[in-house]
Design brief:
The chain is built from 15 helices and 3 strands. With 361 residues, the protein is mainly alpha-helical. A hairpin with an 8-residue loop joins strand 2 and strand 3. The N and C termini lie far apart (105 Å).
Length: 361
């Protein structure tokens, strides 16, 4: 009789485990469907539930059995990665899945398995974004102008002149147009539209908000950027060993890989990668940048673009359009170091009021 009861308990436990696993898989599928309906890109959907599967597989538990201590131990040990951004991204995705699980499945899980759904991400192990506390301080408008002037003056002395010019033009365009490094590296020659707008524009495949995938937009050249890019294309772009007349060719080709294509008809050089661009800008800033800011990277030039244009009188809405932001609140974060003068603004407001009253009288 005892053996029969033991077998019955084991069978019931086996059925419960299979039922829990089935519900786990159903919840994952429904979660992906929901995020797909919300407009997330296929690439984002692929990695959405991977951290959940990873940690649950490691401990061989269902999500509602995972504790905060287990999460801490995992990401402090086997799940730890050299880049803190990778760990932060995984933990945030786990937390988002638990919000879905609590919203749609908490009642069923408690009723069927007696478990309470609670995210293992709590107030103590929740990742904090660097931007919440880190302030990116760009160089002043004057220091930036002097930096680019000194860099351009040094170009004729560069060992690899075409490569040096490419790096310089990329950096200056980042500052003028506010594009991201990854966006600029992917621009093709056919993406430049000289006739659009006042001074021409170029197409970039922008970063999507909330994982919604890339969003194409036109980036602005302005008068200075048009002259700079025209000079680069007319005088320097042809020095790279691919076909500079092919509209599919990268605007900024990779010099190292382009050499292997020399003499091969119909083959296009790959674009320069963002890391190469970042290293070139870093080295140039060490050599030519003067002032309290001692090092530049592409995203800091993007901040400088926003800050200096805003300080020069460009309205917030136009800065938002320039950077390609969906929300003005994102743009405001780029202007944390913008110099303001509340006293001057108050005086000007009072003068406008006086002029308006005088006109009405």
């Amino acid at each position: 009789m005892a053996n029969v009861l033991t077998l019955q308990r084991q069978a019931a436990a086996s059925v419960s485990v299979e039922a829990e696993r089935a519900l786990f898989q159903d919840s994952l599928a429904e979660y992906v469907w929901a995020r797909d309906v919300a407009g997330l890109s296929p690439r984002t959907l692929e990695s959405l539930v991977q951290p959940v599967l990873e940690i649950c597989s490691y401990y061989d538990v269902m999500p509602w059995q995972l504790s905060s201590r287990q999460l801490d131990q995992y990401f402090a040990g086997p799940g730890k990665r050299p880049r803190h951004t990778t760990v932060r991204s995984k933990i945030n995705r786990i937390d988002l899945y638990y919000a879905f699980l609590e919203q749609r499945y908490a009642g069923e899980i408690h009723r069927r398995f007696g478990a309470v759904v609670e995210s293992p991400v709590d107030a103590f192990n929740r990742p904090v974004h660097r931007g919440d506390f880190g302030l990116r301080i760009p160089p002043s408008a004057r220091a930036t102008k002097e930096f680019f002037a000194a860099w351009r003056e040094a170009l004729p002395r560069a060992r690899k002149y075409p490569v040096a010019v490419r790096n310089y033009v990329m950096s200056k365009l980042t500052y003028i147009s506010g594009v991201r490094a990854a966006e600029l590296c992917q621009v093709q020659l056919g993406d430049v539209h000289w006739e659009n707008g006042q001074w021409g524009r170029f197409l970039v495949h922008g970063k999507g908000a909330g994982g919604s995938g890339p969003r194409d937009r036109e980036a602005f050249l302005f008068e200075e950027g048009r002259a700079l890019l025209w000079w680069y294309i007319e005088e320097v772009r042809g020095e790279f060993p691919d076909d500079p007349t092919d509209p599919r060719a990268p605007l900024f080709p990779s010099e190292r890989l382009a050499k292997s294509l020399a003499g091969m008809d119909g083959l296009l050089a790959p674009p320069v990668v963002p890391d190469t661009f970042r290293r070139a800008l870093k080295m140039a800033s060490h050599e030519h940048l003067r002032g309290p800011v001692g090092e530049l990277f592409p995203h800091l030039l993007r901040h400088a673009c926003a800050t200096h244009n805003y300080e020069a009188g460009m309205p917030l809405w136009d800065v938002q359009v320039l950077l390609g932001h969906v929300w003005a609140s994102t743009t405001v974060g780029y202007l944390a170091t913008a110099k303001g003068d509340p006293e001057r603004a108050s005086l000007e407001s009072s003068r406008r009021a006086v002029r308006r009253l005088s006109t009405e009288a």
